[in-house]
Amino acid sequence: MIITYEVTCSVPTIKTEYDMENELRQNNEKIDVNNINELRETIGNVFINEICKFVNKVVINLNNEQTIINMNELTFEQRIKIIENLPKKITENIIKYVNNVKENLNKVTLFEFNIKGKKYEERLEVDGSFFQSL
Fold it and tell me: How many domains, in total, are found in the chain?
């Protein structure tokens, strides 16, 4: 039995960011911060949520059969289950991709100001929470 995977990633759209952040907040609104297991699970979900935002498609080839999963059609919970079941090496490569994208975005979202000889740096953070109201 031979299983191969193909994962297609890209920078998430603002809509994807918004939808995923919104669903994450709805699912984790009533967290008991004194419950260590619940808190650990929530932090894990936030981490996996970041990865899920970047994955568009997963193709699983099992022998001669191919299963194509369009991640953009799935809920946050469904995406997490799929990402959690990918081999470790694939997840590591996705994380490398996400880190590379974020590193490059950080370069273009840094604003430098020079006011009266004093240098200021501010970073513009734009993600789904940017559009959320409290």
Answer: 1
Q: Exposed, middle or buried, 12 (CB in 10 Å: 0-12/13-18/19+)?
A: buried
Count other C-beta atoms under 10 Å from residue 55's C-beta.
Answer: 25
**How much of the chain is helix, strand and coil, in % rounded to 5?**
50, 25, 25
Which residues are registered as beta bridge partners of 15? Answer: none
Backbone angles phi, psi at 11, to 5 degrees: -70, 130
CB 59 within 8 A of CB 70: no
Structure tokens at 57: 């498609």
Task: Select the more confidently predicted residue: 69 or 24.
Answer: 69
Contact 70, 8 (CB under 8 A): no
How would DSSP label each residue in 18-41?
A: HHHHHHHHHHTTT--TT-HHHHHH
- Domain with 57 in it: 3-131
Backbone CA torsion sign across 8, 14, 19, 25? positive
Mean pLDDT (the chain, rounded): 81
Q: Is the pTM of this model over 0.85?
A: no
Place of tokens 């970047």: 54
